[in-house]
Inverse folding.
């Protein structure tokens, strides 16, 4: 009987982690900003901004390592392979690694000048490695696919992201802030004073989406008050 207990505990941890992940995706991540539909499928791809928010949720840090590069300025041709390493910010323990590669012969980058392409290809390699690592660390590959930001999906999302960041906080964000306030037993006036100090607004509903996301992260880091 006792031999079954560790298995049961593991199953419960997985279930709780899955529920937390699904709640975060549904309440915090924004479609066409943090993730988007893969054309002609019912699958979603995770964007860099969504991967960054998932790292914030789990308190993961990141670093990048160059695996290989192929640079020929006469051709011209640029190719990079990058490894992203995610680690727990509290313990420093590595939680996942991801690999991404990109080259200037990919169709989307043919329109750029050689040295513009070199920079863009390097950044895309890092982005792909980062998202790959996040999908592994958060075990969210059943929800999201590998980053496809160089597809038309992200072209549309990029145009929407800046506008959405300037929009008011979503209803989901506001509800989540109030939920966290309740869990932490924070008085409304105390929270209003804090957002006034940080964001120069008088009420939670006046926060924009970016500010709301930041404030949610701040609240999640607060210790709960004793009963």
């Amino acid at each position: 009987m006792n031999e079954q207990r560790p298995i049961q505990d593991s199953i419960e941890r997985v279930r709780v982690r899955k529920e937390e992940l699904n709640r975060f995706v549904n309440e915090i991540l924004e479609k066409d900003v943090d993730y988007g539909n893969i054309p002609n499928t019912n699958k979603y791809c995770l964007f860099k901004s969504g991967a960054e928010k998932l790292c914030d949720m789990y308190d993961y840090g990141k670093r990048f390592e160059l695996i290989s590069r192929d640079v020929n300025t006469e051709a011209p041709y640029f190719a990079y392979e990058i490894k992203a390493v995610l680690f727990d910010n509290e313990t420093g323990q590595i939680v996942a690694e991801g690999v991404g590669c990109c080259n200037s012969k990919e169709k989307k980058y043919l329109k750029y000048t050689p040295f513009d392409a070199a920079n863009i290809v390097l950044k895309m390699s890092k982005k792909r490695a980062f998202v790959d690592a996040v999908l592994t660390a958060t075990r969210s590959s059943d929800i999201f696919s590998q980053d496809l930001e160089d597809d038309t999906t992200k072209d549309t999302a990029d145009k929407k992201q800046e506008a959405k960041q300037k929009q008011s906080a979503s209803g989901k964000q506001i509800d989540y802030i109030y939920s966290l306030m309740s869990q932490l037993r924070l008085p409304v006036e105390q929270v209003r004073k804090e957002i006034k100090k940080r964001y120069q607004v008088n009420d939670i509903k006046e926060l924009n989406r970016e500010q709301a996301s930041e404030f949610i992260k701040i609240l999640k880091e607060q210790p709960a008050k004793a009963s």
Remarks:
- The chain has two domains: 31-166, 171-220.
- Residues 200 and 207 are 9 Å apart (CA to CA).
- The longest helix spans residues 114-138.
- The chain has a mean pLDDT of 85.
